[in-house]
Each structure stands twice: as structure tokens, then as C-alpha cells.
Design brief:
This protein is mostly helical and about 625 residues long. It has four domains: about 1-35 and about 35-110, no CATH class; about 120-215 and about 235-305; about 350-365 and about 395-505, no CATH class; about 510-629. It contains 21 helices and four strands. It has helices spanning about 1-5, 15-20, 25-45, 50-70, 80-110, 135-165, 175-205, 240-255, 270-275, 280-305, 310-315, 315-325, 330-335, 350-370, 385-430, 435-460, 460-475, 480-505, 510-540, 550-575, 585-615, and strands at about 215-220, 225-230, 375, 380-385. It has a four-stranded mixed sheet with strand order 2-1-4-3. Strand 3 and strand 4 (about 380-385) form a beta hairpin. Helix 14 (about 350-370) runs antiparallel to helix 15 and helix 19 (about 510-540) runs parallel beside helix 21 (about 585-615). The radius of gyration is 55 Å and the shape is elongated. About 20% of the residues are buried.
Length: about 625
């Protein structure tokens, strides 16, 4: 018709001409029907099994309308255009709603894929650093907040799909199956998130991958224990194992941040389902097995230092006390073997001091060579520096204790001699006149002190020099004042000895007179002690029928004390003037007996008062069962 009309050809049939005039209308019909067909076919080709039951009625209604086109309608039907428009609109509406519903599901998948390649925890900066946990709380808060917002979005999208698919009954099996379909997508998304985190830990703790250390624990010394921080002892708090479990729990907890879509599963969220996934559980077990293996090896490493435990367990002061008395720490066998008479004292020599210092200096050098860190299974690092430094300090304290004792002995000995010289030089320079007994006694006391200290001070200087030489070999800081005193004091001591000798010669005549006088006093006291003894025997309550016993005991104590004071004065004077005195056994015997008398009379009165109390008891109040025969 187009060609004919273009050539102005006459004689065109009227019907053909009418048909041509409606060409555009038919083209529009065909175009719309074609669009409807494509939309319908798209629905049939792309609809999912879980979607089909939800729109089944809608499809049936469309199929009924399309069936009219096949069975009833023709191009000349009056309402054909209305039919085509209605069919197209209904098919397109369903196709569009299904498309949007699918797009929402795809968006849910995209939302859940956000973290499937992003571990919750990571190293600080770069691959060679430890797992960074300083921002743990902030990191968790951010991730949990994101998941919470995502959960709200997912629930909103599912609700929108319910409206798009025109779900009339949310309790229908068809809708539950659809929800299960979307719910499973969310669960799979969580599974990939958890898997990503577990695989991160497994990769970073696989020795075959040659990883850098991921975790670290400090070995510390908190006497009397060696402790890890975090602890490797399961009975402690804040253990490494608890840290790992906490990290894993926070990873799984992500599944609790989105409420379960499939509420008919009676699960509030996805965490429980994730925890029951065997493949994830196997990955978790593989990781925790590595953790437990590392804990065991770390404890074995710590046990290597048990041989040094005595350094922080033993009491240094008690060790030094026994060392100064016996030259070593007593063994249990020595204590038991000398239980009765006691272990004989045997003060240490300078060589023994040197051996002790050398021992602990050697330990110090040995400890200083310890490694600062210990790598276990390539992914776990023990930071030994705190323990190492503490052990170095303790070893140095032991060494310093012996060196300081030697240094103190030198300075104290020199100070003692200097004070002695100052005191007794002054005392020996006192002028003693004939008849001045107090001055004579004072001078004799100074002479006695010099005589007593003479052997010790004479033999002191060479050992002190040896001690200083030994300390010097260890780099011990020694004040110049010590050397100055050590050089000056021998001469001063020699002068003091000369002074004492001169004074002794000067007071010799006065001393002779006083010695004779003292001997007379001693002889007189010796006679008096026998008289006192007789009096004590007569007046003291030695008989059972004595009265006023405690008054007599008190008086006896007073009298004996007076005799003892006089006896002590004679002994002191005798020591000054080098006079031998008897033991005065009678006075000592009186003291011994009055103590025994006091104890005896205490028992006597205890028995008497007990019997007197019993005599007051009525017969009916006597407990016959308690009577002891």
C-alpha cells in the first residue's frame, strides 16, 4: 500500500485503503502487546520458587486476561485498546514489583558483604606489628553500630518486599519460606564475616606462613612468682586464654546485632546459629588449639628460669646472718647434728666473701646475656625484658650486699678506732693526784679499754687494706676519706698505745696502793658473804609452817640485791686494777635459793586455796564423776 500510494497508483481496494489508514493504531497495539509479552516472559523466566507462591494469584489473574486474547478477542473488538492497556499495566506492575523485590534482596546481599573481607581486628600499622587492641572498645562500638543500622535497613527492605509482593498473611507458609530465603542470605553473610575473622587468625598463626608475632605476653617477676602478663596460668584472672576467648566471642557477637528475620525459628538473632556451624567451629578449634600449644610452650620457657628462684625466694638478710656466723648457710643435717650444743661458729674469711661476690657477679653476667624476647611458633612473642631486668637487679643486690658489708666493715672499723682514740686520748690525759680515787678509776678504765682492744686494733689494718683492694677490683666506689683515715690512723693508734704506757707507769704507785686497798675490801666482803649466807638460811621461809612468807621473801630479795650490787662494784674495780677476786658463791647460792623458794611457796598457796575452796562446797553440789581418785 505504501509503495502503491507513493506511485499514485489508482484503483486501490477500499478495504485495503481503510486498513492502511489504521496502520499507526495497529503498530501501537503490536508494540504494547510485544512489551506485555516480554514483561510476562521475564516474570516467568526470572521468578524464583520462593517468589512464585506469593504472586501465584496475581499471575493467575493475568493468565486469565491473556487467555481472552487467545480465545475471544480480535483486532476489531471494540474494547481491544482498553484491554491491551490494562493487560500491559498489570503485567508491567507485577514485573516492576518483582524487579524491585529482587533489587532489595540484592541490596541485602551487598549490605551483608560489607565486612566479609574486613577483619574486626588487625595489626597496628603494617604487617610486622602485633595485633592492635588499644582501640578495641572503639572498634567494637563502631562495628556493632554499623551492624545495628544495617539490621534496621534489612528489616525495612524485607517489609518493603512484603508490600511489593502484596503479602496478605505474614503467617502463611509461602511468606515464611520467602523470609527463610532472605534470612539464609543474612546468615550466609554473617558466616562469611565470621569466617573472614577466623581465617585472619589462622593465617597469622600458621608457622608455615612465616608470620610475624601477632600476640605478646610479658614475663615479669613478682616475688615469689614469675608471672606472664597476660597470664598463662588457667587459674589466674586476665589470662591469655581468656583474652583469645574474648576476641572470639566479640567476633561471634556480631551475629547478635541483627534481629533474626525468620522469627518463626524462635531465635532472637543469628549468633546461636553461627555458633552451631560445624565448619566455623572447626576453624575456631584449630585456632584455640594453637593458643593452648603456645601457652604450654611459654610455661616450659618460664620453667627454665626456676633454677634462679633462690635469688628472689631466699631471705638475703638471713643468708647474710648465717654466712657471718658460720661461713655458709646451715643445712638441715648440720642443724640436726648439732641440736644440743649448737653449730659452732666459723666466721667467713675474705676469700669466702670474694667467692660469694664472684658467684653473683657471674650470675649477673649470665643473666645479661639472656634474650630480650622469645618467639614461639613464630606468631607468639614473650617479652622477657621486665623479668630479665628484675633478675639483674636482684643478682646485683646479692652481690652488693656482700660488697657493702665489706665496705661498711672498713668504714665502721676505722670510725670505731677514730672514736676510740679520741675518747681515750682525752681520758688518759687527765692528771691523777694522790688520794683522787675517782680520777684514778677513770684513768684505769681508759687503760683497761686500751689493753682490751690492743689485739684487735693491732691486727686490723692489713685486713682492711685487703678488703679495700678487693672492693677496688669490683669497681666499688670508695671515698678518699677512707684512704686518708687508713693512712693516718695507724700512727695515731701507735701514739695512743705510747700514751697508755706512759700513763700506766705514772699511776703505778697509786695503782699499787689501790690494789692493796681493794684486796682488803675483797677479803672483808668474802667474810661477810658467809655471814650473810647463815642469816639468809635462818630468816628465809624454808619450813612449811612459816608465816608472813612473802614479806620474808621480799626482804630476802632486797638484802641479796644489796650484796649483789656491792659484789659487782668489787668485780668492776678488780677488773680495772687487774686483781683476782673469788667467785662469791654464797651470794649466788642465796639468789638461786630465793627464786626456788618463791616458786615453791606459790605452789603451796595454790594448793591451800584450792582445798579451802573445796571445803566450802556443799555435798549436794559435788560432781562425783569429776572427782579424780
Amino acid at each position: 500500500m505504501q509503495q502503491t500510494k507513493a506511485g499514485n497508483t489508482a484503483n486501490i481496494p477500499e478495504e485495503a485503503s481503510k486498513m492502511y489508514q489504521e496502520n499507526e493504531k495497529f503498530v501501537n497495539y503490536v508494540t504494547n502487546l510485544d512489551y506485555t509479552t516480554k514483561s510476562y516472559n521475564k516474570i516467568r523466566l526470572t521468578i524464583l520458587d520462593v517468589e512464585k507462591p506469593l504472586v501465584e494469584k496475581q499471575l493467575e489473574e493475568i493468565d486469565k486476561k491473556l487467555l481472552r486474547a487467545e480465545k475471544e478477542l480480535s483486532w476489531s473488538t471494540a474494547e481491544i485498546w482498553d484491554y491491551i492497556k490494562t493487560a500491559r499495566s498489570e503485567v508491567h506492575d507485577l514485573e516492576n514489583r518483582l524487579h524491585n523485590a529482587k533489587a532489595n534482596v540484592e541490596q541485602i546481599q551487598r549490605l551483608m558483604s560489607t565486612w566479609q573481607d574486613v577483619p574486626l581486628y588487625k595489626r597496628s600499622e603494617g604487617k610486622s606489628t602485633l595485633l592492635y587492641l588499644d582501640d578495641k572498645e572503639q572498634r567494637l562500638n563502631n562495628r556493632y553500630k554499623e551492624l545495628d543500622e544495617t539490621g534496621k535497613k534489612i528489616h525495612s527492605l524485607l517489609k518493603e518486599n512484603s508490600e511489593l509482593l502484596k503479602v496478605e498473611n505474614n503467617d502463611s507458609d509461602a511468606w515464611k519460606k520467602y523470609v527463610d530465603y532472605v534470612d539464609q542470605m543474612v546468615l550466609e553473610g554473617f558466616k562469611r564475616i565470621i569466617n573472614c575473622n577466623l581465617m585472619f587468625f589462622l593465617r597469622e598463626t600458621d608457622p608455615a606462613q612465616n608470620p610475624d608475632p601477632l600476640f605478646e605476653s610479658q614475663l615479669q617477676l613478682q616475688a615469689p612468682n614469675m608471672l606472664f602478663n597476660p597470664s598463662m596460668d588457667e587459674n589466674d584472672k586476665n589470662t591469655f586464654s581468656e583474652l583469645i576467648e574474648d576476641l572470639l566471642d566479640t567476633i561471634y557477637k556480631q551475629g547478635s546485632l541483627i534481629p533474626r528475620l525468620a522469627t518463626h525459628t524462635n531465635q532472637a538473632n543469628y549468633q546461636d546459629a553461627l555458633e552451631h556451624m560445624q565448619d566455623l567451629a572447626d576453624l575456631r578449634t584449630d585456632f584455640t588449639d594453637r593458643v593452648h600449644a603456645v601457652i604450654g610452650k611459654a610455661n616450659e620457657y618460664r620453667a627454665l628460669f626456676n633454677k634462679y628462684a633462690y635469688l628472689w625466694v631466699d631471705d638475703r638478710q638471713e643468708f647474710m646472718r648465717q654466712f657471718l656466723l658460720y661461713g655458709h648457710v646451715l643445712t638441715q643435717e648440720e642443724i640436726e647434728a648439732n641440736a644440743e650444743q649448737g653449730v659452732p661458729q666459723n666466721p667467713p674469711t675474705l676469700q669466702q666473701f670474694k667467692e660469694q661476690v664472684d658467684t653473683y657477679e657471674s650470675i649477673y653476667e649470665e643473666v645479661s646475656k639472656f634474650e630480650d624476647t622469645k618467639i614461639i611458633d613464630k606468631w607468639f612473642r614473650v617479652d622477657s625484658r621486665p623479668f630479665k631486668q628484675a633478675l639483674l637487679n636482684i643478682a646485683k643486690k646479692w652481690s652488693f650486699m656482700f660488697k657493702q658489708h665489706l665496705m661498711d666493715d672498713v668504714t665502721n672499723s676505722l670510725q670505731e678506732l677514730a672514736d676510740f682514740i679520741k675518747l681515750h686520748d682525752k681520758g688518759l690525759n687527765v692528771t691523777v693526784n694522790e688520794g683522787d680515787y675517782d680520777s684514778l678509776v677513770e684513768v684505769m678504765a681508759h687503760l683497761g679499754a686500751v689493753r682490751e682492744k690492743l689485739p684487735m686494733f693491732d691486727a686490723m689494718f692489713e685486713p682492711l687494706k685487703q678488703k679495700l683492694e678487693l672492693l677496688k677490683t669490683y669497681g666499688q666506689e670508695i671515698n678518699d676519706d677512707v684512704y686518708e683515715r687508713l693512712n693516718a690512723l695507724p700512727e695515731k693508734w701507735a701514739n695512743t698505745k705510747k700514751l697508755a704506757l706512759n700513763v700506766k707507769q705514772q699511776v703505778a704507785p697509786l695503782q699499787t696502793n689501790e690494789v692493796a686497798n681493794l684486796r682488803r675490801k675483797v677479803a672483808n666482803f668474802d667474810v661477810r658473804q658467809y655471814e650473810f649466807r647463815e642469816k639468809f638460811r635462818k630468816e628465809s621461809p624454808f619450813a612449811y609452817d612459816q608465816t608472813q612468807v612473802y614479806r620474808k621473801l621480799d626482804q630476802g630479795h632486797i638484802d641479796i640485791s644489796a650484796m649483789e650490787r656491792e659484789m659487782q662494784m668489787l668485780n668492776d674495780s678488780a677488773a680495772l686494777f687487774e686483781v683476782t677476786v673469788p667467785d662469791f658463791k654464797q651470794v649466788k647460792q642465796c639468789r638461786k635459793e630465793i627464786k626456788l623458794l618463791k616458786q615453791l611457796w606459790d605452789y603451796v598457796y595454790l594448793v591451800r586455796t584450792t582445798f579451802d575452796d573445796w571445803k566450802k562446797t556443799k555435798w549436794r553440789e559435788i560432781n562425783a564423776e569429776a572427782v579424780v581418785y
